[in-house]
Every structure is written in C-alpha cells, then in structure tokens.
Amino acid sequence: MAYLTVTNINKSFNNLKVLDNISFSLEKGETLVIIGSSGSGKTTLLRCLNFLEKVDSGSIQIEGKTIIGDNYPLTDKEIRSSRMNFGLVFQSFNLFPHYNILKNIMLAPQLSLDKKTITREEYKQKLDQTKDEALSLLETMGLSDKINAFPYQLSGGQQQRVAIARALILKPKILCFDEPTSALDPALTNEVVKVINHLKTQNRTMIVVTHEMNFASKIADKVIFMAEGKIFEVGTPDDIFNNPRSQKLISFLKNN
Amino acid sequence: MILSSFSDITYQLLEGFTVTLKIFFYSLIFSLPLGLVVVFGSLSKFKPLKVIIRTFIWIIRGTPLMLQVIVVFYGPGLWFNYPIKSRLNAVIVAFVINYACYFSEIYRSGIESIPDGQKEAGQVLGMTKLQILWQIIFPQVLKRIVPPISNEVMTLVKDTALARVIAISELIMIAQEIVRIEGILWPLFYTGVFYLLFNGLLTLLFARIEKKLDYYRG
C-alpha cells in the first residue's frame, strides 16, 4: 500500500473537464513533481488535495486511510481535519501582511489550541513549545534575524521560505508546492531548491507543481506529465526528461 | 431690535452646536456597527437576502437624505397612526439608516479588495471561517477603509444641518433665527467656523489612526 493513493479523480468547472480520471501513488519520503503547461490541470489537482476545490468523484487515501471517497467530508470541521494531512505553499506566498514573520508562522497552531479544554498553564506551555518550533524552523530557513520583520520587508525568496515554515509547523504528512518559484527571479529559485533539498534529507513527502524543467529535474524522484486534465506520462526524471514517449511531452519539453 | 454682542451670539450658536454634535455622535456610533450588519446581508450567498439588502441600499443612496428625514419623522404618524414624538430621535434614526448603507458599501469594497489568497492561506492552515474573518480579513480591511470612512464622517458633520427640515435647533437653524430676528447676516457665516474647527479636529484624529495602522504595507 502506497503512502498516498489517488484514484480516478474527476473535476469539471461548468462542463469543462479540468481533471480527467487522475490516478497516481506516492511513497513516503518521495518528491513528486507534476509538470505541464498552464491549463493542464496541475494546479487544480493540488487544490483538490488541499480541499480548496471539491472533487466531483474519485478517492484519496493516505496510509490506507480514506480522506476523500464516498464519505467525502461534508462539514467544515471534517474538511478542516482532513486537509491537515496536507500543507500547501502558494505561488504568491500569501503571507499575512499585517503580522510579523513569527506571528505568521505561529498564528495557525496558536488558534488551534482550544482554550476551553486546557488550563491556562497548559496553554502557555503549548504556546512556548510552538514558539520554540517556529524559531527553530526559521533558523533552518536561515531567517533567524527576520522574526520581527513584516512580509513587505522581505525578498520574494525569503517570503517563500517563511511560507514553507508556516506550512511545516503544522506537520503535514504531505507538503504541496504550487509553482513555488514562478514569482521569483531565477537567482532566488536556488534558495527554494536548497530548502526543498534539505526537506528531502528529512525524508519528507512532497508534491511540487511547476513548469520550470530545470527546477523540476533538480528535486524530483518521480515526475508526472499532465496535459488537458489527463496524466500523459509517469516516470523517473530520467524517463521523463531523457526518454519522453508521447508527442505531447516531446513538444512540451522542446518549448520549456 | 436687540443688538446682541459677539459673545452672546457665540453662546447661542454653541447651544445649537451641541445639538449638532449630538446628532453627529449618535448617528456615528450606531451606523458604524449597523453598516457591518448590512454588509453581511449584501455579501450573503443567500440570494433573496442579498437582493433585498442591495435594493434597500439603492433606495437609501438614491434618494435625498433630507427626504428620508421627513419620511422617518412624518411617515409613522401618517401611515401607521403612530406619530413620532421626538424630533431628535427621528433625525438620528434617518441618519443611522442612511450612513449604515454608505458605510456598508465602504466595508464591502474593503472586504472584496482583500485577495482570495489570504482566505485560502487561512483555510489550508486549518483555520475556521470565523478565525479567518477576525484574524486575517478584518484587520486588513480596517487599514484600507480608514480614508473613505474619514471622508464619510466629515460629510456627516455637515449633513447634520439637514435636521432643520423638521425644525431641530441645530447650528444653522439657530443662526437663521438670529439673522431673522436681528437683521444681521454674519452669524450665519460664523457657523462655518464651528464646522471647520470640528472637522479640523477629526482630520487630525484620522491622520493619527492612519499613521497607527501604517506599520505594515500590503
């Protein structure tokens, strides 16, 4: 049983089929890169995994546990607990501009503490623990000197690293990245590659959507090529980049 | 003809100005939160509610405030046999309804100006709808709406002069009385100083608020 199993996911927007019977699996610790031109459905797939879009049909299992299936979670509460299996880093970072870096990272875990069920001491203790985790994540990201800065004071690469730390503190089983380098200068892409490679050494499971082939080949264990809402090819980076089989992938690689 | 001194007239106008201030403060403290209620209606996903609220906003914004004051004061007595006793209350009710609609439109533009990505970031971090609203959306909306709100508030100061249409002795009405009785014109011009000084104060206040909210960009 694979760590993540996605089976026959379908999704349409007003009769336009965006995801057409998508199935794939992923092992623990693997980095899956999904490539394809814009409009291929790769971002929608990621948004479905994170419950930002509702799938029309299909199932998703993590560690054998069904999180989307016939019993598609309906209540807000169920969706919230299921989506915590995944973390998502956005193309445009989406940091909270009105909070400093530390608060950006601590806000979600802090809000998840239920003040009604724990004593004040426990709350304080958990908050301190969260703060320690946040500080150590920021150290890993090389941003220890920025904890009191606001997002607008940071470069794009720094903001993206904060966004990664913000996702990591919630300990998602699978961390997803939606075009994490598209909003960055080529020089800053390397910062993100470094962080992702570091995460790989920690055996994290990741799904990265991108259309930058150079970036993809640097981080991928497994590559999926998507076009027109379908998966056209799946394979190792070597299979995909050096031995493409379908005409679609060949012409896609030529243009990128 | 009694020739009143400058200080006498100043004193009389100050009395009128306290009525002006009363209308202003009560209208403001009730319309700001009511606007929030209205904006939830106008942004509601429940279509009938949205249509009703937006139609109501259209009527309120599309007719003169002076007419609304008259309708609120005379309407209940004419149509429901329930005459309004307090003129001041009637004018405050009319102002609150009118300004709540304008404020709700300012709130709406503020809320809609926050990118979807902010809400989505909150969602993927497992926050509840209420947490997203209070912790992420509202603080950012607040900063964006301060300039248009300050604009409306200064307009409200001057709109209080409309209260005289149902014979409330606010500043302009008092000045007109003096002009009528004493046959001098300057007290009417003099009222401008009161409005000007008070709005000057508000300008300083809002500049301070804006500066306080200027600790971040975006």
Describe it.
The complex is a heterodimer of chains A (256) and B (218). Chain A has 256 residues and is of the alpha/beta class. Chain A folds into 2 domains: 1-85 and 174-256, 3-Layer(aba) Sandwich (Rossmann fold), CATH 3.40.50; 94-171, no CATH class. Helices cover 39% and strands 24% of the residues of chain A. Chain A contains 9 helices and 10 strands. Chain A has helices spanning 42-49, 76-83, 101-112, 120-140, 156-168, 186-201, 213-219, 237-242, 247-255; strands at 4-13, 16-26, 31-35, 57-62, 65-68, 86-89, 174-178, 205-209, 222-227, 230-235. A 6-stranded mixed sheet of chain A has the order 6-7-8-3-9-10, with helices on both faces. Chain A has a 4-stranded antiparallel sheet with strand order 2-1-4-5, with helices on one face. In chain A, strand 9 (222-227) and strand 10 (230-235) form a beta hairpin. Chain A is globular and about 60 Å long. Chain A starts with a strand and ends with a helix. Chain B is mainly α and 218 residues long. Chain B has 8 helices and no strands. In chain B, helix 4 (87-113) packs across helix 6.
User: Whole-number average pLDDT of chain B?
Assistant: 94
Structural class of chain A: alpha/beta
- Please report which band the strand proportion of chain B falls in: under 5%, 5-15%, 15-25%, 25-35%, 35-45% or over 45%: under 5%
Task: Please tell me how large the radius of gyration of chain A is.
Answer: 19 Å
Shape of chain B: flat
Strand neighbour order, sheet with most strands of chain A: 6-7-8-3-9-10
CATH superfamily of the largest domain in chain A: P-loop containing nucleotide triphosphate hydrolases
Radius of gyration of chain B: 21 Å
Largest sheet of chain A, in brief, is: 6 strands, mixed
Q: CA-to-CA gap between the ends of chain A?
A: 35 Å
CATH fold node name of the largest domain in chain A: Rossmann fold
Q: Give the overall form of chain A.
A: globular
CATH architecture of the largest domain in chain A: 3-Layer(aba) Sandwich
Total tally of structural domains of chain B? 1
The most extensive interface between chains reads:
A-B, 28 and 23 residues
The percentage helix of chain B is: over 70%
